[in-house]
Amino acid sequence: MSSGDEHESNNPPWYAPDRPGGKFNASGVPNRLFQHPVIQQRKIYLSHAVQPGVVFFTLVAPAPALLGNQVVKILHTDKEEMAIYERLLPELHRLNNHTIPGEITRTGHPLLIMPRLNNINNLYKRERWTPRRLMDAILQVVEGVEYLHGKHIAHMDLHPDNLVVGTRQTAAEHERVVENRIYIIDFDQSRQFTLGPGVQRAITLPDTVHDPPNGLTSFDPYSWDVYCMGRTLHQVVEEYVTDRTCIRVVRRLTGSLRSTFGGWLVTNGSEAVLAYAAAVPPHVWRCGF
To answer: For each of the chain's 289 residues, which pLDDT tens digit applies?
Structure first.
């Protein structure tokens, strides 16, 4: 792979120069990002790439090399991500808006600067899941996707790394981060539509983490989000939950999500999850505490 600042283009990826011997420097920070006017003006210290050429962690200071509490993303101006964030960020006061708090900079090439939060796997695999915690997480994710769909936005690439969670520490560091709140990130593949759920026709799927079922290449984008959401939540349950009661309670719901292509959850959203939770026997909620 050819890389380096000598091969600049306006949009990402912006790669750092190759390592000695011509080896691709996947984690490197490109000189043009170091020299970006916003990075210079705000004295933001950059650490390394977490998505090569696109997303970068910050440092508290050059030395000692302690990770900072922000992430910098280079926005692609030919995609819809920037326009989507411009619609979502002004509505962070809405309780069902699970967009990560962030800022789009306007000086030089647009950047998205956001809090550095743990993804849902990294956070919860260290803690014990209870039925209540699981249902709260599921409801938050469904609520966030339902909000997007209400604005005719399809995320198109929901998976565990695109769900992050506020902690007590990050809530103390960032005024707009809420402890235990799940946020949806990475609208790189996302699309905006004129038509909403139940009306929008199938589109050709982009490259995504989850493989489509039965080799399909076209999907109703809203139903695709629901399918990916089910796959994501099912993966969390199967990989990180050890309480058998938790697994029985949630597996049925995540299975319903994964098998839904245009049905009840696309149109009923969080109300359907709440109705399911209400039907769970009270003794189940008490287990695991």
So the answer is: 555 554 456 999 999 999 999 999 999 999 999 999 999 999 999 999 999 999 999 999 877 778 999 999 999 999 999 999 999 999 999 999 999 999 999 999 999 999 999 988 766 655 566 767 777 888 899 899 999 999 999 999 999 999 999 999 999 999 999 999 999 999 999 999 999 998 999 999 999 999 998 888 999 999 999 889 888 887 877 766 666 656 666 666 655 555 543 343 444 455 555 554 544 545 444 444 3
Q: How far apart are CA 276 and CA 134, in angstroms?
A: 13
pTM for the model: 0.86
Torsion angles phi and psi, residue 283, rounded to 5? -65, -25
Q: How far apart are CA 217 and CA 260, in angstroms?
A: 17
Q: List, in sequence order, the alpha helices (H) in the chain.
A: 31-34, 37-41, 81-88, 120-124, 131-150, 168-173, 221-240, 244-258, 264-278, 282-286
Q: Report the C-alpha gap between 17 and 3 in whole angstroms.
A: 6
User: CATH second-level architecture of 118-286?
Assistant: Orthogonal Bundle (1.10)
Element at 112 (helix H, strand E): strand 111-115
Where is 163: in which H helix or E strand? strand 163-165
* 124 residue type, one letter: Y
| Burial track 263-282 (b if 16+ CB lie within 10 A, e otherwise) | eebbeebbebbeebbeebee
Query: How do the domains of the chain map onto residue ranges?
Result: 5-115, 118-286
Q: How far apart are CA 34 and CA 46, in angstroms?
A: 7
For 152, 189, 221, 223, the CA distances from 199, given in Å and listed in that order, are: 11, 21, 11, 11
CA distance readout (Å), 76 to 148, 174, 189: 20, 25, 11
